[in-house]
Design a protein that fits this description.
By secondary structure, the protein is α+β, with helices and mostly antiparallel strands. The chain is built from 5 helices and 9 strands; from the N terminus they run E-H-H-E-E-E-H-E-H-E-E-E-H-E. The strands form 3 sheets. It has a 5-stranded mixed β-sheet with strand order 3-4-5-7-6, with no helix packed on it. It has a two-stranded antiparallel ribbon with strand order 1-2. The mean pLDDT is 94.
């Protein structure tokens, strides 16, 4: 894990734009978020993996949660995505033709702008990253998140994404994995338990890549 600091003035500019009123009663005001983010920065990690002689950078993502479209937290996700985008671009500077996979919980419960900010310009030649389409095996749903806590006001949604360099990598197979989608016979043959995906509210994203 490494700390990625925000660009000078980024959090101050965000706070000036959104003000300091809590989004809902009892939620921490933006000034508290700004202080926490300034002190901690973005905690990020990544791994260079060489596959068949090709370097591929894998970067997991977990952006700020909560917030409606245009809310302080939604806007903070934009700042986080831009900050991470710049850090990834810097890591790719000396390997311009490398592969890249960025995946995880983008928490896009408000707008899609954080997704756009994260993928912008990171493809080969300054193109945007591709967005993999992942569907559940049972019903073709794109929802990667569903509540596991019983009574919950939120409907299932697509919060997790996988972005990749389409000029370097080709998606061969992709799906959202839920053990409940498999028959008992299939689970037994694979050594999978029906409860394997019950403990997390986010479903695993499974993608097989090939090179171009």
């Amino acid at each position: 894990m490494g700390r990625i600091g925000y660009p000078p003035g980024a959090l101050e500019g965000w706070l000036a734009e959104v003000g300091d009123e809590p989004e809902v009663p009892g939620m921490a005001p933006p000034s508290v978020l700004a202080r926490v983010e300034a002190e901690g920065g973005l905690s990020a990690t990544g791994a260079w993996v060489t596959v068949d002689g090709r370097d591929v950078l894998f970067v997991p993502v977990d952006l700020q949660s909560a917030g409606y479209d245009g809310s302080p937290r939604d806007r903070l996700r934009e700042v986080q995505a831009r900050t991470l985008n710049r850090a990834i671009a810097a890591a790719l500077d000396d390997r311009p033709g490398a592969g890249l996979v960025v995946a995880g919980d983008l928490n896009v419960v408000g707008s899609a702008r954080p997704l756009d900010e994260l993928r912008r310009g990171l493809g080969v030649g300054g193109r945007d990253l591709e967005v993999a389409r992942l569907e559940r095996l049972r019903d073709r749903s794109l929802a990667t998140w569903r509540s596991i806590w019983g009574e919950d006001p939120f409907s299932p949604g697509r919060l997790d994404y996988l972005l990749y360099r389409g000029a370097v990598l080709r998606v061969e197979r992709a799906f959202l994995f839920d053990a409940a989608d498999l028959s008992a016979r299939t689970r037994e043959s694979l050594g999978v338990l029906g409860s394997d995906t019950e403990k997390s509210d986010h479903l695993p994203l499974v993608v097989d890549f090939g090179g171009r």
